[in-house]
Amino acid sequence: MLFNSFGFIFVFLPVAVLGFHLLRELGQHRAASDWLIACSLFFYAWGNPNDLPILLGSVLFNYGVARWMGAGAGPQDTRRKSILAVGIAANLALLVYFKARGPLPLGISFWTLVQVMYLVDCYEGMVKPSNLREHALFATFFPVVSMGPMLRAKDTLAQLRAPSALGFEQLAPAILLFCLGLFKKVVIADSFARLADAGYASPAALSLAEGWIASLSYCLQLYYDFSGYSDMAMAAALALGIRIPANFNDPYQARSIVDFWRRWHITLSSFITTYLYTPMVRAMGKVTFAKAMIATFAAMVIAGLWHGSSWGFLVFGALHGLGLVVNQYRKKAKHRKLPDGVAWVLTLAYLNVAFIFFRAPSLGDAAEVLRSLADLRSIGGVQTIAQSMGVSLKEIALPVLLGIALVFSKKTSQQAAAEFRPSLQSLGWAASAMLVSLFYLNSSMAKQFLYFDF
């Protein structure tokens, strides 16, 4: 089931939220948890019921591994270490199998890593192995099961045991955040998608202007698409009394690749640092700058391949790894700091190049888009994009300009929701955003979320 669907917005989400809180108000806490598990499984199975047994198998397997591993005597327990290794290997084998074989079960890239984090945190003693009801609720929680954000058990299990009661002070910001997330997705992201899809459909014919328009449009499409989903996930969880982490913090305002990864897909960045980079550095013995940079580069290559097994994703990860290494080297060498404006332009240009490999169907197509970025023989003209779009440029001009302007906003949607104080004016803005979103959702422009493919 898609967040950007009328069924989810007007039927599933209200029924799930009201049913959950009603059961808790009646003192039926176990029944409330069971209700939420049932809702989550229904949500997951809606699009493709064949994916459900795979998710359930993963839930039962990881529950069993955690219970088998037990609380133990500490990380030095060789028995627990062996069980952990088996559990992680099985999870990664499942992910690699589907990445290579395809098609991917919904959300497998996300919920597999969440299970790995759970097992490691149990091994490290950060959480105790949960009972089956708690683990099933944590692992299938519908706001995050398909596209994240990635939750850590130590931050979430306590909230699932005692979620906040449903009140207006909690519900109002949740509704606003959902409206903003939906607007980001169906109005802004899907408008940029028209430009990006048209450009990448004919990469060899792009002029210099079209190359930059298509590639930058994809950067913005991906951001507003994924950040919009993350906002809606946070809103849905908040309506259930659960606070989940933010996944984005104005990433295109970053002044370096290091700064970018502090702001972009924050829960994945945390996973890379905690569960990839740190273990690799520890395994290398005495830490040196060279070893740390090797681990940084390797971790980013793995992160690239997490998105998919094609060469484009490998190059995407390698470029980000290289960018991080260069940033850290400049910092260590105490090179002169670039002016903020220059640093921002260089960072955005580098990100744009990396995302070309993320988006292009093949390395050959990526090379054609890269060629167009410096093609001085054909500077102007947007005929290729205009002919391939299916809608006129006038139809998407306003959302595109709004999306560009919001890149420079000093306030995130999460901050806006946290500061939300209901008034006629603020409620009018929220209602307007929802109405415009529903209009776009009912049009031919509405598109599936990008990360559903990962």
Q: How would you describe this structure in keywords?
A:
454 residues, mainly alpha, globular
Can you describe this structure?
The protein is mainly alpha-helical. The protein is built from 19 helices and no strands. The mean pLDDT is 92.
List the helices and strands and how they pair.
Layout: H1 6-25, H2 29-45, H3 52-69, H4 78-101, H5 108-123, H6 132-140, H7 153-161, H8 168-201, H9 208-239, H10 257-263, H11 266-283, H12 289-307, H13 311-332, H14 340-359, H15 363-372, H16 383-388, H17 393-406, H18 413-418, H19 424-441
Helix pairs in contact: 1-2, 2-6, 3-4, 3-5, 3-6, 4-5, 6-7, 8-9, 8-17, 8-19, 9-14, 9-15, 11-12, 12-13, 13-14, 14-15
Low-confidence stretches: none
Shape: globular
Per DSSP, what share of the residues sits in E-state strands of 2 or more residues?
Answer: under 5%
Report the helical percentage.
over 70%
Total strand count, please? 0
Rounded mean pLDDT is 92
Number of domains: 2
The arrangement of helices and strands along the chain is: HHHHHHHHHHHHHHHHHHH
Give the biggest beta sheet: none
The rounded distance between the terminal residues' Cα atoms is 16 Å
The SS-based structural class is: mainly alpha
Give a brief outline of the structure.
The chain is mainly alpha-helical and 454 residues long. It has helices spanning 6-25, 29-45, 52-69, 78-101, 108-123, 132-140, 153-161, 168-201, 208-239, 257-263, 266-283, 289-307, 311-332, 340-359, 363-372, 383-388, 393-406, 413-418, 424-441. It starts with 5 loop residues before the first helix and ends in a 13-residue tail after the last helix.
